[in-house]
Amino acid sequence: YVLNVREIDVPTTTFFMGADTTTVTLSCTAYGDAVSEVVWSSQFGTNLTGMTATLLPYSNYSSQSLLEYTYSIPEDNVTCSFKYTYDDVSLSGDTMIIHYISDTIGLNTSTGLWYGQMGDEETFICSFSYFPGINISAGFFFQGVPISTRYINAVINDSIPGEISWTIDSLSDTITDITTVIKLLCQVNFTIPSQDGFFQTYSSNSKTFYTREFTLSPMIVHTLIESNDETILCSAKGDVVSVTWNVEGRTDIYENGVSVAMVKDDSNEKISRLSITNAMKDETFTCNVTYSLSSGESNTTQLYVLDAAIDPSFIGTYVLTASNITLSCNVTASTLTPTYKWKLNSTYISNEISSTLTLLNAQPSDTGDYLCEVTWPTVGTLDTDVYVLNVREIGVPTTTYFMGADTTTVTLSCTAYGDAVSEVVWSSQSGTNLTAMNATLLPYLNYGSQSFLEYIAHRVYWNIHTL
Predict the structure, then answer these.
(1) Residue 169 exposed, middle or buried by CB count within 10 Å (0-12, 13-18, 19+)
(2) Which of 375, 386, 387, 380 is nearest to 341 (CA)?
(3) Of 168, 174, 121, 118, nearest in space to 140 by CA
(4) What pLDDT digit, counting tens, does each position of 358-401 carry?
(5) Closest Cα to residue 66, out of 50, 76, 80, 77?
(6) How far apart are CA 51 and CA 70, in angstroms?
(7) Torsion of CA 46, 51, 57, 63, to 10 degrees
């Protein structure tokens, strides 16, 4: 009496596949009496006809079929069905569930490039697919070095299955060796305890992170009119495409002593130097940076050409004795506050340290070369042009003379104080002819001229001759 106990045995019902395991062998065993055929089918419609299937005897009273299943869709349910020869009855085994672990690891964005500023807080997110029953470990790599060995470990986010994230608190503080660019990738390790030897590691494509830094130095430029060569540096780091300049009010920036040169022109850093020779006026210079990943940005620096002049502006003036006069030291506007000193004939005037100098009741001794010395902090000192002040006065040392038989000749003296004189004229209210008398015109001390007349007595009136 032959008894056949029929059973369809499926040894393994769950399979995991990945980029490195695109083919897996599925097994079904039919116990009992002989079978005539086996049929493999997919509940998700996968075409199995092109996959190799075998039907072979397997120990006593059993047959076994093997199917070389090749990955085609992320998840599939496959069954095997045997038809018994004796009565054409078909029996099916348990469903075999096939999961495909995608090797596509997502990192932040769909593009391979993004950017941030030095000091920004950046969050990097790595996304992947996995199924229950898989043990995973994941981490971020920085240019091939595991970040976990240098920074903090990646943390599995339980609220979002298949996502890990790592947050950089501060680019400038946390990544101390970063200059302009970091290349980051995410790596995920999959292991399956139920399948000996199943260990696969997948990595995302690397993402290049450009850390931008844009500096313009100095932001404010002060130069003296007497030493007016200056240099401005514009430095840009990150995904920099170009660095250009423009000057407000100019169509051609290269005119009037301006030149531009690239000091550094690397793929991750560009430094442009703008040189100004013989600057003569205040101007605004703008450095423009363009980026490959977004629109550009600009920074502006202001050039102040410092100068000073005494007002009244005309050089060389005169006042009469006892006049009052005020001199003002005018400076060009800037962000700096200057200090002042006044000089007369190259000697500092005591206690005169304001922008104005007032002379009350001017005397001939106040005649001379006035100069205002202006000092700007951190920049330098500049002297104004000399202002010549002439205080005019005609001095007659003696106004009454007495002459007699023994003194028929007397020397008369007049002194002209102030600016230079061209001639002197002696005249007599009584009609005395003075042309025959010897007259001289000579320089006298500083800013003065003196004339002497050898006066000869020619008329006696009560023994007194009046001038």
Answers:
(1) exposed
(2) 375
(3) 168
(4) 999 999 889 889 999 999 999 999 999 999 888 999 989 888 98
(5) 80
(6) 7
(7) 0
